[in-house]
Amino acid sequence: RNDTPQLSKKAKKAAAQKHANAGLDFGDQAALSRRAERFQREHELERQKSTRGQASLQANNQNAHLLNRISRADSPSVFGTNPDDPEADPNVLDWDKYTIVGTNQELFKDYLRLTSEPKPETIRPYPVLQQTLVELKKRWREKVSYNWICNQFKSLRQDLTVQRIKNEFTAQVYEIHARMALESSDMVEYNQCQATLKNLYDLGIPGKHEEFTAYRILMLLHGRNKSELNLYVGTLTPRQKRDPAVQHALQVQRALSMGNYHALFEMYWNAPNMGAYIMDHFIDRERIRALMTMTKAYRTLSLPFIQSELGFETATEAREFLSTHGLAFFTNPNAPDREKTVDCKSAAPQLAQIYEEKYRRVGIKGAI
To answer: Which of 122, 207, 223, 318 could anchor a disulfide with 171, C-beta 3.0 to 4.6 Å?
Structure first.
């Protein structure tokens, strides 16, 4: 019979740990010491980089043009992963090493991806870039091609980046380009601008912070990213929450979470700034969800009622939406649009299938 007393799980773990520590030889102790020293050095390097980055920003804010010339190889980019940032492509040189003052006097210049050291004669200086922005806004009002405008704005953003100009003018450039991209349904460029604007605002650079905060909330609603949305809403300041555009975006969030489609489509028609352009990207999905609810509550739905509840401008637009989605189950198909009614029993199964196939998964072009 074994008279050795049984040890508890906690005691066994403590004994095993003691045995393991006793087994460490001098070489193991030396390795642990070297590892601790390495972590300490890395922590100190990160702290120094952060300090230098703040100093660079302060100097740039004081000198709104290119008097601030910095050529440090170890300086981190504040923009993160951005097409205008060399770190986005490992094959592109680190532009921080080659900060320059441009000498090019042309107002318009095509965008070309830099793969070598930028030359001053190909980069426009700050005063020229300011004139370029004025001319681009004028051309946009004259209804020139969006593709040309987008190309010019990417070139403008590039010239700002290689010269490390990060100030209120920089934020204005990205804000204007983002609005133009929204108006043209170019979500790739919009998301790139939004990502850079977030970094600029985080650095304390003034701009239309509240407007783009509202856009960000709507984009997160579009992507149905609930966890990130909740975290982002939790960081909003009292000033941001008082802004009408942010309040509208939060009301949209509340309507979606409660399934209040009546309130949602009212806010769609009353969206401030350019919020409706973002809502356009998920409004059809919410119309299908609303119809799924409505067909469970009614035996038939009149087309004018669907038009009114789901935010269509005309009954014809509502009919075309139903036809496009294979939902034209009218009890009186030959009647005028204002008299048509939908058979809910026939439409309900099709609605569920359409939602699963077309709207369950969300793909956002250019999401960052």
So the answer is: 207
Q: Which of 200, 223, 214 is nearest to 272 (CA)?
A: 214
Distance between CA atoms of residues 246 and 256, nearest Å: 15
Between CA 159 and CA 167, with CA 162 as vertex, the angle to 5 degrees is 75
Other Cβ atoms within 10 Å of 181 Cβ, number: 24
Q: Which two tokens stand for residue 221?
A: 């609603």
- Rounded CA separation 214/191 (Å): 14
- The CA distance from 168 to 288, in Å, is 42
Question: Per the structure block, which two tokens stand in for 259?
Answer: 């399934």
DSSP state of 158: H
Q: Give all strands (DSSP E) within the chain, no chain letters.
A: 300-302, 341-343
Q: From the DSSP assignment, how many helices (H) and strands (E) are in the chain? A: 15, 2
Query: How are the residues of the chain apportioned to helix, strand and coil, as percentages rounded to the nearest 5?
Result: 65, 0, 35
Alpha-carbon span 172 to 180, nearest angstrom: 12
The DSSP secondary-structure symbol of 2 reads -
Beta bridge partners of 343: 300
For 118-139, what is each residue's pLDDT tens digit? Answer: 788 889 999 999 999 999 999 9
CB 352 within 8 A of CB 292: yes
Please list, in sequence order, all residues whose beta carbon lies within 8 angstroms of the beta carbon of residue 114, skipping any fewer than 6 positions away: 86, 92, 93, 95, 158, 162
Task: Identify the CA nearest to 197 among candidates 222, 180, 218, 215.
Answer: 215
> Does residue 279 surpass a pLDDT of 90?
yes
Q: How far apart are the C-alpha atoms of 84 and 154, rounded to whole Å?
A: 8
Decide if 171 contacts 200 (C-beta within 8 A): yes
Residue 185, CA distances (Å) to 32, 105, 136, 141 in order: 55, 32, 19, 17
Sign of CA dihedral 350, 356, 362, 365: negative
Q: What is the pTM of this model?
A: 0.70
The values of phi and psi at residue 330, to 5°, are: -85, 140
The DSSP symbol for 122 reads G
Confidence (pLDDT) at 363: 62
